From TrEMBL:
The keyword Transcription applies. It comes from Terriglobus roseus (strain DSM 18391 / NRRL B-41598 / KBS 63). It comes from the Bacteria. Residues 214-442 form the Sigma-54 factor interaction domain. Keywords: ATP-binding, DNA-binding, Nucleotide-binding, Phosphoprotein, Transcription, Transcription regulation. InterPro entries: AAA_lid_NorR (IPR058031), CheY-like_superfamily (IPR011006), Homeodomain-like_sf (IPR009057), HTH_Fis (IPR002197), P-loop_NTPase (IPR027417), Sig_transdc_resp-reg_receiver (IPR001789), Sigma_54_int (IPR002078), Sigma_54_int_dom_ATP-bd_1 (IPR025662). This is Response regulator with CheY-like receiver, AAA-type ATPase, and DNA-binding domains. Residues 76-189 form the Response regulatory domain. One of its GO terms (molecular function) is sequence-specific DNA binding. The modification 4-aspartylphosphate is found at residue 125. CDD domains: AAA.
Length: 541
């Protein structure tokens, strides 16, 4: 055996690629020769003319492989190449990584595989006799969710660019080293596993009317659920913006509990409600020596339980000097408590919420731009309730169901109450709705909740609606009269008593029989109303 200087040592345990490594199978190593194999069979020296000196390729044993086999087990990979040795090598490497591998050495075989298998990843040579780019487009159309990795020769890098434009997610230029191939497959597989996992989270949390603890089935909420399922699997900061009461903290909790560390601690810090010094000690802690008279240290929330989540509510209210300190902690991934020279690793995931427009606070110099970008790695916008009125009945029923469980009273909404709630603007969003339902249960005299049990501002809104409808009716009547006059007819004379009768009856009709409310709206006492009804011959039944 000669020329060991120009050799590569392939190292690995039995059962890994090293054991059955055959250099002729891998494109970039195609012209390498096996020089020697050590007696244990776990190390091989190969050489080629002008090869890289002393390069060592380490093939980890499956158990040490950064991609665990079970992560890839469900990932279906198609390898397409018309060069049989390359095809075989790529398939072997991919199945060693745990992919479920399908091989194709022609466009026809590839089409058949695309038809039969729900492919997640496609590794394809662009230089196919029938035209690789058109085949790529075809695969993209048939399997739009799959990630496509293209292999090209150096001379055709421009076609790799074209392939990316057509939807390929990555590319390899031939000849490539084995770790380039495993790297690109690893990325594609991880991307796919991540998507499968986020879909699984979404399906798991998907209830009939919402997602986990979030209720709502409007398109805006459905979009939010898809993002929540994705970000739950990562550890990036998320900035949740939205008006007060739209559910920012509820979304933050859902992100935490639906992620892999859902059983760890979820802590909330109200940045706007704590004095700056208290906020600082909560976030960063302090050591005993920091202040005279302190006999113990305080742990920082930023370094509390590994894998936990810290929700910074109303982060816009954080003083600028603390913003700078938080930014440093996020950048260095290290937290320094007051009075301590030693940094402690940042262990929690940061989610932040604000009901103020942070980017305009940045423009006004009231919030640090660099911190804004750090926190806004993913931005979520909570839609106000008035923009998703279809969620109002679902939310109202959800809160009422909770009241039924807590009180064992079979509460239900009257049609009126539901109509008024559905038409109201809810400036205080879901929190206001939740409060209104609780109040109605507390005030109602029976299990049926009427409009009169709702907060006064909602009743006034309903009153305005009713009066507007009455004005419309009077206008219609006036128009009809002037039309009749214009046509030469005698003007219709309506007595005051008749107008009064009409106003009372219309109001009661529109309030679906709620006479107390009608009296209130008409500005008369309830005794007067009952007397009038008696005069009209309408019994109070
Ligand atoms: N989609 C939803 N489904 C069920 N309950 C919700 C939803 N959104 C909000 N809530 C409820 O409404 C109340 C207010 O929600 P939350 O505290 O999450 O709002 P917020 O936007 O963080 O409010 P603030 O800006 O005032 O801090 C909570 O009791 C929460 O349970």
């Amino acid at each position: 055996m000669s020329d060991t200087k120009k050799s590569v040592r392939i190292v690995g345990k039995a059962g890994t690629l090293a054991e059955d490594f055959r250099p002729e199978l891998v494109t970039p190593l195609r012209d390498w020769q096996l020089l020697e194999s050590n007696p244990n069979g776990d190390s091989h020296h190969v050489s080629r003319n002008g090869g890289v000196h002393g390069l060592e390729l380490l093939r980890p044993h499956a158990a040490e492989n950064p991609i665990r086999k079970h992560d890839m087990a469900k990932v279906q990979l198609l390898v397409l190449d018309d060069d049989p040795p390359v095809l075989k090598a790529c398939c072997e490497i991919a199945s060693g990584m745990g992919f479920a591998v399908h091989a194709a050495n022609s466009a026809e075989e590839a089409r058949e595989a695309v038809r039969v298998h729900a492919l997640d990843v496609v590794l394809m040579d662009l230089k196919m006799p029938a035209g690789g780019l058109s085949l790529l487009e075809e695969i993209r159309m048939r399997r739009p969710r799959s990630s496509i990795v293209v292999m090209t020769a150096f001379a055709t890098v421009s076609s790799a660019v074209e392939a990316i434009r057509l939807g390929a997610s990555d590319y390899l230029t031939k000849p490539f080293a084995m770790d380039e191939l495993t790297g690109v497959l690893e990325r594609a597989g991880q991307r796919r596993s991540f998507e499968l996992e986020s879909r699984r989270v979404q399906q798991h949390l998907r209830g009939q009317n919402g997602h986990g603890r979030l209720i709502g089935s409007s398109p805006a909420m459905e979009k939010l659920y898809r993002i929540v399922a994705k970000v739950a699997l990562s550890t990036h900061p998320v900035l949740i913006l939205g008006e007060s009461g739209t559910g920012k903290e509820t979304v933050a909790r859902t992100i935490h509990t639906s992620g892999p560390n859902g059983s760890r601690r979820f802590a909330v810090v109200e940045c706007g409600q704590l004095a700056p010094a208290v906020l600082e000690s909560e976030l960063f802690g302090y050591s005993r020596s920091a202040y005279t008279g302190f006999d113990r240290s305080k742990d920082a929330l930023l370094t509390s339980e590994e894998g936990g989540t810290l929700f910074l509510d109303q982060v816009s209210e954080m003083p600028l000097d603390l913003q700078a300190k938080l930014l440093r902690a996020l950048q260095d991934k290290e937290v320094r408590a007051a009075g301590s020279r030693q940094g402690v690793p940042l262990t929690v995931r940061i989610l932040a919420g604000s009901s103020r427009n942070l980017s305009s606070l940045v423009d006004q110099g009231l919030f640090r731009k660099d911190l804004y970008y750090r926190l806004n790695v993913v931005g979520l916008h909570m839609p106000p309730l008035r923009e998703r009125p279809e969620d109002i009945p679902l939310l109202a029923e959800h809160f009422l169901e909770r009241m039924r469980r807590e009180s064992a009273v079979a509460y239900q909404f009257s049609a009126d109450a539901m109509r008024v709630m559905s038409g109201y603007g809810w400036p205080g969003n879901v929190r206001e709705l939740e409060g209104a339902v609780e109040r109605a249960c507390a005030l109602s005299s029976g299990p049926v909740l009427h409009m009169g049990d709702l907060p006064t501002q909602m009743q006034s809104m309903a009153a305005i609606d009713v009066l507007a409808a009455n004005v419309l009716r009077v206008d219609e009547r006036r128009n009809a009269e002037s039309k009749s006059r214009a046509e030469g007819g005698a003007p219709a004379i309506v007595s005051i008593a008749e107008l009064e009768r009409e106003a009372i009856l219309n109001t009661i009709r529109q309030l679906h029989g709620d006479k107390l409310m009608a009296a209130k709206l008409l500005g008369i006492g309830k005794t007067t109303l009952y007397r009038k009804l008696k005069e009209y011959g309408i019994s109070d039944s």
